[in-house]
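Holo prediction — flavin-adenine dinucleotide.
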Amino acid sequence: MPSTSTTSISISELRDRFDGRVTAPGDDGYDRARKVFYGKWDRRPAAVIRPTSAAEVAGVVGLARDRSLELAVRGGGHSLAGHSASDGGIVLDLSAMTALEVDRGDGTAWAEAGLTAGAYSKAVGADGLATGFGDTGSVGIGGLTLGGGVGFLVRKHGLTIDNLLGAELVTADGRILQVDEQHHDDLFWAIRGGGGNFGVATRFRFRLHELPGIVGGMLLLPADAELIEGFVAAAEAAPEELSAIANIMVAPPMPFLPPRAHGKLIVMALMAYAGEAAAGERALSPFRALAEPLADMVQPMPYAGLFEPVEDMEVTEESARSLFMDTVDAAAAAAIVERLQASTAPMAVAQLRALGGAMARVPAAATAFAHRDRPIMAGVGCVYEDAGDRPTHDAWADGFAAALRQGATGVYVNFLSDEGPERVREAYPGATWDRLVEVKRRHDPDNLFRLNQNIPPGPA
Ligand SMILES: Cc1cc2nc3c(=O)[nH]c(=O)nc-3n(C[C@H](O)[C@H](O)[C@H](O)COP(=O)(O)OP(=O)(O)OC[C@H]3O[C@@H](n4cnc5c(N)ncnc54)[C@H](O)[C@@H]3O)c2cc1C
């Protein structure tokens, strides 16, 4: 029997108000509705509400504010820290808001915040257009954009926020604001990197780029320290059209790998050259020359082809750390080999992305993403089943990240897990933090939007 009330909200009242788009404990679809990408965030909200308009979003925000309920805002549900799940609160699930309006003449698109990167890319890709998001189609454009957005077009066209022209934002007081360079510019600055701290974005206006096709796909190479160092050097020297995401791991028995590679260290690289095929082949040749590829699936394809759903990935437990590096030299490459081989998890990975290009040409203070000058982003992580093993694998991830750390601290906010307030500060160095706190104090003084990598408003 579906429940009709909780201690502080009446579910039947909510069902009337939101036209039945409310799922509560006891409902048939409850387990599906509360599920997020990472299985470890197995939380039980009082209600999952799926609004269909900005006005309804404002209604949910008002409800959470007035009844002092925890509010979890969910786009694609891929938060590493479980921020789109709640125990006992309300999940504001944007997945019913997926409208997309493309203005070809203007080269822009208004996209509702419930779209995934894959759905958006597929839709605009049909017209030979693209906006850069991340490397995975199922990630929501909401969380990804508000944190920054680092993907295959980062060197050519910058971060996702560098292609964000405006947004519609529901603030803590329930107003629906249009924010851009001319209107509420403090909020427009803050939502470009500051995450969901300032309101619920209901739609975004993005710049579109002509991209009729790319040369892209997976390139698998046998790995040792020398190859890892050479791979990163090639990625940094490549034209800006080319982005390479190198995943270094002990090879599982994947069907497209020769059996001799199983159990050996490999680089599984996701390559994308955003341009014409012959130039793409030339840009890829230094990578193919590093070693005889174990598998080479890089080929001309539509950009959206990079976001084809592979299979529904089930990740239960993960220990991961992210950081920026200045260089991957011989010592760093050797540390990567050693630490990966020391992991006792069923699967452990180090990921390296060469940045620079268009992303680095935007001044650090122009948006709330301040790490413009960091040339390499690294992630280390492992996945496993048993939560009891978490301390062991967390310690491995911490040790690995410490071994790679060089120069200034810093982390990309969207690759933070639940690592505490000190790490959130690392995402927003120096003046960026102070400015974010000021905007937060002005627009969300009671910290209604706190289930995120939180920027507390502090005392007035
Ligand atoms: C498999 C995987 C691959 C990834 N690859 C990349 C990558 O290549 N590049 C990259 O930059 N990032 C990447 N990420 C990180 C990703 O950007 C973040 O996890 C992001 O927060 C996910 O957004 P979401 O909408 O799916 O998540 P959700 O869990 O729904 O939301 C995450 C956070 O954003 C807030 N939020 C979401 N939508 C809104 C909104 N409309 N208004 C206000 N707040 C909102 C939520 O409250 C929450 O705090 C990846 C993550 C995963 C799990």
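READOUT: The longest strand covers residues 214-222.
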